[in-house]
Amino acid sequence: MPELQFLLIAGTAVFLGSLVQTGVGLGLGLVAAPVLVLLEPPLMPGALLTTTVVLPLLTVCTEWQHIDWRGLAWGLPARIPGAVAGAWLVTALEPRVLGAAVGVSVLLGVAASLWGHGPVRLTPALLVSAGTVAGITGTATSIAGPPLALLYQHQPAARVRATLGGFFLGGTLVSLLTLAAAGELTGRQLHHGLVLVPFVVAGFLLGRPVTRRLSTTGLRTSLLWVVSFSGIALIARSLL
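== Probable membrane transporter protein ==
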């Protein structure tokens, strides 16, 4: 595909995904990953991980005071073994099978959330489990948000965005380093990922006004919609 055509299509997807994630806390991988897979499958997941590391950095810099540091302390280190497992899955399993399995798991998580009657207690066991699963799915599919978003869905809006930003920043760096160590991160992936960074910044700047208008209830509804679409997108991508 010509570089200009790739830049326009992939850049639009990254911009829209950044816009959504700035307001809700996740969504960049959901919107952009299917597009990049259709445009240039060899670029995934390294190119998108390179691009997405910028957005949580911006989020953390602007909303660091709302981060749940205790949650990060338990969940973020757990992403390391998850990332190792995800890198192994990239080399060992058929991508379609992996994507479909993750997609089904995400939808089951949404169903369980809707069935429940209130916020879950953020225990160390749940935080470690969510961090591990996020490491697996983030490294293998570039979509790491659903496990953590489901866990934090009842928390105040600013806390959700800031904490997810912290998870994504540390976790994406872990995934990139793990892929590089496994020989699955190429120079071409890095190049295309860096080229798309300006679209991330534009989406972040335009999405900032949305963050001031979302209540906790509104954020939870938006999160469940975005997470559900991520599951559906993964399943659909596996069937293409």
